[in-house]
Write a structure and sequence with these properties.
The complex is a heterodimer of chains A (108) and B (116).
Chain A (H helix, E strand, L loop, with lengths): L2 E3 L4 E5 L4 E3 L2 E3 L5 E7 L6 E5 L10 E2 L10 E3 L8 E9 L3 E4 L3 E6 L1
Parallel strand pairs in A: 2-11
Antiparallel strand pairs in A: 1-4, 3-8, 5-6, 5-9, 7-8, 9-10, 9-11
Chain B lengths: L3 E4 L2 E4 L5 E7 L5 E7 L5 E8 L5 E2 L10 E5 L2 E6 L8 E11 L2 E6 L3 E5 L1
Parallel strand pairs in B: 2-11
Antiparallel strand pairs in B: 1-3, 3-8, 4-5, 4-9, 5-6, 7-8, 9-10, 9-11
Classes of the chains: A mainly beta (108), B mainly beta (116).
């Protein structure tokens, strides 16, 4: 079965500290993985995708097929990073499955 | 890219009634999706709507409860029928649109539904 697991509902870090939001997936095919972010009072938007291997707003995520993980990392958290983060898996061409989400709170 | 608007943005409805949510996109798109996000939970796909064909529903969702229309490439509606308090949720419209050679999923602002 296709599944995305984000084990942490809430992650609280101090400004300047490293951040890692965990994501594990279950999918028998070749996965397409994404991170979406929802800032307060804004709509859900794409943060990054594993295919592009880019860094957005200082965030990176590496697909580890051996561990079936796609953790989101940032070396130095900023207060404006506080948001809800969703890991997502595109399965079967069109359908996107979302994890439960992790709320990141960056303290001053 | 794609900019999505939804109407209404929120509503409070009585049980047993129905509500139709509209989704308008500023560009023509093939795939439109309807999601539900219940309080404190993640997004759950209700159905995929292609223009000119019947919507494809996910397990646990049926056409009688959530009829969908897709009359053209920029518009869709989702009806929540015979509502109960368990239908209280945020309903999100989403589309897949081309962006710099790849496809990206865009989301509307959501419709917050409360059923009393």
């Amino acid at each position: 079965a296709q599944r995305v697991t984000q084990p942490e509902k809430l992650l609280s870090v101090f400004k300047g500290a490293p951040v890692e939001l965990k994501c594990n997936y279950s999918y028998s095919g070749s996965p397409e993985l994404f991170w979406y972010v929802q800032y307060s009072r804004q709509r859900l938007q794409l943060l990054l995708r594993h295919i592009s291997r880019e860094s957005i707003k200082g965030f990176t995520a590496d697909l580890n097929k051996g561990e079936t993980s796609f953790h989101l990392k940032k070396p130095f958290a900023q207060e404006e990073d506080s948001a809800m983060y969703y890991c997502a898996l595109k399965a079967g061409g069109f359908k996107t499955i979302f994890g439960a989400g992790t709320r990141l709170f960056v303290k001053a | 890219s794609a900019v999505i608007s939804q109407k209404p943005s929120r509503d409070i409805c009585q049980r047993g009634t129905s509500l139709t949510i509209q989704c308008q996109v500023d560009s023509q798109v093939t795939m439109m999706f309807w999601y539900r996000q219940q309080p404190g939970q993640s997004l759950t796909l209700i159905a995929t709507a292609n223009q000119g064909s019947e919507a494809t529903y996910e397990s646990g969702f049926v056409i009688d409860k959530f009829p969908i229309s897709r009359p053209n490439l920029t518009f869709s509606t989702l009806t929540v029928s015979n509502m109960s308090p368990e239908d209280s949720s945020i309903y999100l419209c989403s589309v897949e649109a081309a962006d710099s050679g790849t496809y990206e999923q865009y989301f509307g602002p959501g419709t917050r539904l409360t059923v009393t």
